[in-house]
Amino acid sequence: MRQAGRYLSEYRALRAQAKDFVDFCFSPKLAAEATLQPIDRFDMDAAILFADILLIPYAMGQDLTFAEGEGPRLPGLADGHQIAFNDIPETIDVLEPVFETVQRVRQDLDSTKALIGFAGAPWTVATYMVRGRGGEGHADVREWAYRNPETFERLMDQLVEATSAYLIKQIDAGADAVQLFDTWAGGLPPSAFHAWCVEPVRRIVEQLRAAHPTIPIIGFPKSVGSLADPYVRATKVDAVGLDFGVSLQWARDALSENAVLQGNLDPVVLAVGGDLLLREIDLILETLDGVPYVFNLGHGILPHTPPENVSVLMKRVRGSA
Questions:
Q1: Would you put residue 113 in left (φ > 0), alpha (ψ -120 to 50) or beta?
Q2: Helix or strand run (H / E) with residue 67
Q3: If you average pLDDT over residues 288-294, what whole number do you get?
Q4: Which of the chain's ends, N or C, has fewer CB atoms near its CB within 10 Å?
Q5: Is the pLDDT of residue 48 over 70?
Q6: Which phi and psi angles does 252 have, rounded to 5°?
Q7: Are the C-beta atoms of residues 221 and 197 closer than 8 Å to each other?
Q8: Catalytic residues
Q9: Contact criterion met (CB below 8 Å) for 273 and 218
Q10: Model's pTM, two decimal places?
């Protein structure tokens, strides 16, 4: 998952070399090292690009800062702030350091290891842009979108085009697969879910397939429950990430014929470790035995997770513990 390094001491030492988090993401040498640290320590099968989902709004022209202990801060559109959107070529120019990071990682990564590029899905990125920060519950964002439908539609169109171009350039630079994180997809009414989550991802997948027909695309619509089925069918993603609230037996029955399954170990279980961790790993492997599956967490790894628990997980999944 995206939070690839916060639980590693070597990551924290590396983070201290950058003046702030945005600088860290735009420093290819540091970002490439952060991407590779979990591979170097645990010999994982794939690396996921170290970046942040809010680099796109930053490149589009919205100010972005990260307050220590408080997360990202943007001038929220719901507060009356405006954005003079950069055009797509200018947006991509701002993101060039990310593509250099991809090139560096692909050059240093063993040829047997995959490199996964990623971006935030338009709805999730839009929630931060509208509200100006993260947080659970998005009634305020929905209200703003309903009251300003033309402005919100323009914002989503901009995000679809920028995200498509961003991921295409990541693939051009060496990514073997890409993933779209829709962290805030859960809790939307079905009509809004289709309009704001499904349809934008479908359009992005269509553009990626036109440019790179064989590159696998992973969608992760978190906390959407049974709506993952129409999401997979409509977007035509190759794989679907499962959060830790999804029934794996249901996912096997409903989703596995149309997409590879990915997930869904509870990150808290990984942090706790011990026999509980081993039981949950075994249950996942048994339930999904015989269908295409990528072992992963049901959301991001927690910062206080003991690295030795990750080592235990790796050994158990590979049958050596």
A1: beta
A2: strand 65-67
A3: 96
A4: C
A5: yes
A6: -60, -45
A7: yes
A8: 2, 6, 15, 52, 128
A9: no
A10: 0.95
